[in-house]
Amino acid sequence: MARLTMAQALVRWLCAQMTEIEGQRVPLFAGVFGIFGHGNVTCLSEALEAVQDQLPTWRGQNEQSMALAAIGFAKAKRRRQIMVATSSIGPGALNMVTAAGTAHANRLPLLLIAGDTFTNRLPDPVLQQVEHYNDPTITVNDAFKAVTRYWDRITHPAQLLQSLPQAVGAMLDPADCGPAFIALPQDIQEIAFDYPEAFFEPRVWRIPRPRPDRDALAEAAALLKTAKKPLIISGGGVRYSGAEEALRAFAVKRGIPVVETIAGKGGLTHDDAAHCGPIGIIGSTSANALAEEADVILALGTRLQDFTTGSWTAFAQDARFIAINAARFDALKHRALPVVCDALEGLTELDAALGDWRVEHLARGKALFAEWNALLDSHQAPTNAPVPTYAQVVNVVNAFAAPNDTLIAAAGGIPGEVAKGWRVKSPNTFDLEFGFSCMGYEIAAGWGCAMAQEGPGSLGGTPIVMLGDGTYMMMNSDIYSTVLSGHKMIVVVCDNGGYAVISRLQQFKGVPGFNNLLQDCRITDKANPLHVDFAAHAASMGALSRKVESLADLAEALDWARGNDRTTVIAITTDAYSWVPGDADWDVGVPEVSNRESVQKAREAQIAIRAKQRIGV
């Protein structure tokens, strides 16, 4: 038996968990992001300090950004390794709720550990405790129940024996993958307990690959054989199952074009023989045209978010769906024929079931994709305009990026421009967090991604973070974290004077510009709103930085950044009104009654969009 405090036992168990990546055994938990307070500093930090050479602890600047960094790490590792984020009780814990939602929406593993109040309640109310008059068992940590796949509060040291394996099982389950949360009451962390030594024996965890039901597979093969204009939608599940090569071979062999979701983008390279562009609201004209004419759609590893389906307006009413997905919940969406299994296993067995069947539809997809590339070229080409567009900036950064560099973006106007305009050079070098569209993800995720560029399966490149001025203002402190820890990234800040893309939506739906662009906000000088000097701000945190005005200066600054020994931030003013076309429809709320003629017209247009929607039964 090993007599340990609950906190010591938890940490020792984390250290004993292993996984395999490309045949090499590595720790399942690669490290801990921690901000210590009274809820986790006296016991949990004591345990972590003792193993810091085995399980490194990194100090963040904000609890939310620490957990977002852990998500960026998990994405870069394709869910095969996990980071931990720990906070004290109260506001520190609640700061991580947004990150938990991000991991939950994106189906990504993340272990969250927060301090909690005393189970004996003798000191109540303690510092940072939120009291509920009718239920003293509730603490702020109950808020995590809505955004986690596994939740527990350890009220006795022995509970770790059952809880920890279940938490890992949930985080590694391809169908139920998501964040796990464990609350550690302060008085329970300190208690010693005799744990069996067997609990700490090294264990190697492997992500299961469920195979498809034979009858469901046969039905899927029969349906696909009826297709004249089939389409494959490749989602994030393709990347996480390692099915990229199998998908490429399947699509070329069967003559089916492949389009990608936001999470799936990067599974294939831009110039791959089967690739025909990104689909949906921030997609390409090629993919959306293929979706409109498709009679059978093979949805592979995608949860069919509204940005993929154009709020379910992108497909014909009589189109049939086959959904290969590890999650039953996703496989059953929108009258799909569900094939519940791992993407790689399902695709492999579907290929075998199809015999020599083939269609000649890929050529149609590549022709449409060529037209899309020409349109993209026209929008990305330099002009004599005094202010560059997002599309032009994306093109310059894309041309600079090495094949093993990873592009990271999340919210605002950048996602649409990189989803459409970033031409992926190597598989799995594109991270666009648009499952939750979490503003503030970008820089934090860049830190996590930089950490992931080590060990088996790593690409070894430099994270390139692209974000707007609004997102930079929301969360930028991990620039400082990367300088302290020595994890380099390159950050490109596009300053278009506020929340430009949401202002675009606002005005497109008939509302005058209001409270989004700085010039439309309640400020003292609307004619000359103050613009932050992002380069100077980043320099104050120890980063190297430059402010540039032209595309040529941007290219030169990027070359300079490549040779720098630390995180480098480049700020450039960009146009707030120019966007690459190609979008599908989107269902949003528009006032049913308004005195504005512009809103009335937008309402009529929205009704027309809803008339095109497939009924999700």
TrEMBL record:
Keyword hit for Hydrolase: yes
Thiamine pyrophosphate enzyme TPP-binding domain sequence ranges: 412-571
This enzyme's EC code(s): 3.7.1.22
Gene Ontology MF terms in the entry: 3D-(3,5/4)-trihydroxycyclohexane-1,2-dione hydrolase activity; acetolactate synthase activity; flavin adenine dinucleotide binding; magnesium ion binding; thiamine pyrophosphate binding
One Pfam family cited in the UniProt record for this chain: TPP_enzyme_M
Keyword annotations: Hydrolase, Thiamine pyrophosphate
InterPro entries (UniProt xref): DHS-like_NAD/FAD-binding_dom, Myo_inos_IolD, THDP-binding, Thiamin_PyroP_enz_cen_dom, Thiamin_PyroP_enz_TPP-bd_dom, TPP_enz, TPP_enzyme_TPP-bd
GO biological process: inositol catabolic process; isoleucine biosynthetic process; L-valine biosynthetic process
Family according to the record: Belongs to the TPP enzyme family.
Name of the protein this chain belongs to: 3D-(3,5/4)-trihydroxycyclohexane-1,2-dione acylhydrolase (Decyclizing)
Organism: Stagnihabitans tardus
Gene from which the chain derives: iolD
